[in-house]
Amino acid sequence: MTDASMQSPETGRHTVSLTASDARTKKRAAAEKRFRAYGITAIATGLFFLIVLFASILSQGIPAFQRTVVSVDFTLTQQQQEQAEGTLFKTKAYSDLFISELNSELAERGISVDFDAAAIERLLGKVGGTIRTFYAENPDKLGEPIEFDLAASSRVDGYFKGRVSRDTLQDSRFLQLSDLDLVDALKEAGIIKQVFNWPFITGADSGVDNPGGAGIGASVVGSFFMMLVVLCLSLPIGVAASIYLEEFAPQNRFTDLIEVNISNLAAVPSIVFGILGLAVFIQFMHLPQSAPLVGGLVLTLMTLPTIIISTRASLKAVPPSIRDAALGVGASKMQAVFHHVLPLAAPGILTGTIIGLAQALGETAPLLLIGMVGFVARGYPDGFLAGFTEPNSAMPAQIYTWAARADVGFYEKAWGGIIILLMFLLTMNIIAIILRRRFERRW
Amino acid sequence: MNDMTRVERAVDSKDIKINAKQVQVYYGDTHAIKDVDVEIEDKTVTAFIGPSGCGKSTFLRCLNRMNDTIDICRVQGDILLDGEDIYDKRVDPVQLRAKVGMVFQKPNPFPKSIYDNVAYGPRIHGLAKNKAELDEIVEKSLRRGAIWDEVKDRLDAPGTGLSGGQQQRLCIARAVATEPEVLLMDEPCSALDPIATAQVEELIDELRSRYSVVIVTHSMQQAARVSQKTAFFHLGNLVEFGETGQIFTNPEDPRTESYITGRIG
Hints:
The complex is a heterodimer. By secondary structure, chain A is mainly alpha-helical. Chain A has helices at residues 23-61, 78-86, 90-108, 117-124, 127-137, 154-161, 177-188, 198-202, 217-248, 253-266, 270-284, 292-316, 320-328, 333-361, 365-369, 386-389, 395-404, 408-441, and strands spanning 6-7, 14-15, 66-75, 145-151, 192-196. In chain A, the strands form 2 sheets. Chain A has a 3-stranded antiparallel sheet. Chain A has a two-stranded antiparallel sheet with strand order 1-2. In chain A, a hairpin with a 6-residue loop joins strand 1 and strand 2 (14-15). Mean pLDDT of chain A is 85; it is low at 1-5. By secondary structure, chain B is α/β, with parallel strands linked by helices. Chain B has a domain at 14-108 and 180-260: P-loop containing nucleotide triphosphate hydrolases (Rossmann fold), CATH 3.40.50.300. Chain B has helices spanning 56-62, 93-99, 114-125, 131-144, 148-151, 164-176, 194-207, 220-226, 244-249, 254-260, and strands spanning 16-27, 30-41, 45-49, 73-81, 84-85, 100-103, 182-186, 212-216, 229-234, 237-243. In chain B, strand 9 (229-234) and strand 10 form a beta hairpin. The radius of gyration of chain B is 18 Å and the shape is globular. The two termini of chain B are 26 Å apart. The model of chain B is unreliable at 1-11 (pLDDT under 50). At the A-B interface, helix 13 and helix 14 of A face helix 2, strand 6, helix 3 and helix 6 of B.
């Protein structure tokens, strides 16, 4: 007992002042304080890792959204084109025209630097080919000044982003130290510059030696078609199954077994679904390999348990009094479910579905097994239906492919791809929240 | 209404609306209702009283087959509505429930507008050919539910936004909108305050002119105030059934007397 306690003469009991705390109270208060500290520490740790994660994703991925281009005003007359087409090495002729144009522009700005055709090729790739193709496709542009934005090679790009420096550069057939002098000169002249990398967002995957040209656009389209398949299959099947199990099915051993198995399916590793898809959809049913249709089917199998579980939970959360009320005015069981229970459960079902879709969107392992990985996202599908059957990749599979490639330029692309993927996931979650709010407000 | 009115209430014999004979109800292995015989008259308020768990609500739910929704529940015996066995295989429970409406213990309006709450029953049963007819049914039902004046200006407002007493009267309006012949009420006032209770009781007395009303209640005063006939249930048995005045002033069974004087239950 503390000093504040005193002996009460009448009762012989200790009377304890409320303002002074005894040992037990102190212990309890300390335990409570400790518990709060644990909680705050846990949250702070989580936040710390989240911040580290985001910081590293952003710092590594942002450079992917910038690219280095050489922009030169170039004019080709009809006469020059005819002359070039008449030579034996046609692209070399175009290349020479470009180099003389570049030279004169540098001279105009009072900068002199020595370079040859080989250096230009190391810097910009096959310039002549690009120019020739452009004029072959747009003959009406002949004689007009055109500003060409020619993508610099991956190493030049790396030089601008600090990935490649003069100290670490070793002369190779890709880039030589002398080329960097040329780059610096071009930079001084304002001919070479960094611009926003639209081709990364809209383009398709490139060859293994051309990280600069790689884009995620085609695999975004692949992911989109897959999600379409997943949504169209898993939402109706999942909701129908949940409604039947929750509202109509009798309670017996058989339905218990089904329930247990649905819960188990949710915990099956996704690679198992991948190998199942390979065996059933591709080898047995002969559906096209690498196609978003097959990817969608596999991901549907994976998403179904998630949707069924969340739908059943939200159906369960609808108060039974609503069902009674509907049955009490003479609605049939089906009317009670479809007119009253389902609309009330809709926000929960939608949220579950979108979270299931988001999970499927980020899934990579099953796609590895059905061939939606590797150099397959070569271009956009020819049409809406072809989008389902033409070989394509998906965002996470594309990121995996880039991360596995040798050229460091692809590493940056992988991080950039992650940013795009996260943006899609964030958008989906925001849509889920908005839909939920909107539906809940109606009641 | 007050307790005094029951003595001057004339009870004349009327048609039998529901005739229950030897009804047994089992929940799994539990024998919940034993040998119940009740005759419920038309245009009469019949009250079921008894201690908690005595089976009065279970029996009430047998009268419109709401117990069908409980898997383990079995009903034996005959319950005749206008001479037809409602547990006959050919009877559609949905049609039966349109004829025998129900009001529940907790007010349970649909989370929709007041108008849609009342219009739902007529809509699914096709009672109105057009919007004008439906409007008419909704107004008539809300008037019968004695809530029209309070909600006529806000029919689009959600039914869940009303006060507890208003919600319960809305539920009664919803139940009468399908033109039932019998109205079952399972402790309709237990979640309401005394003022709302008085309003609902008054309403029940008015409903008596058109429907046969069966009400389950825990309040003996309420049974005495609103009913003409009272049935006392105890441990699954129907102990006594008779005119309300007689049950409360001169019960035949000692158990009834113990219950109404507050010694059991």
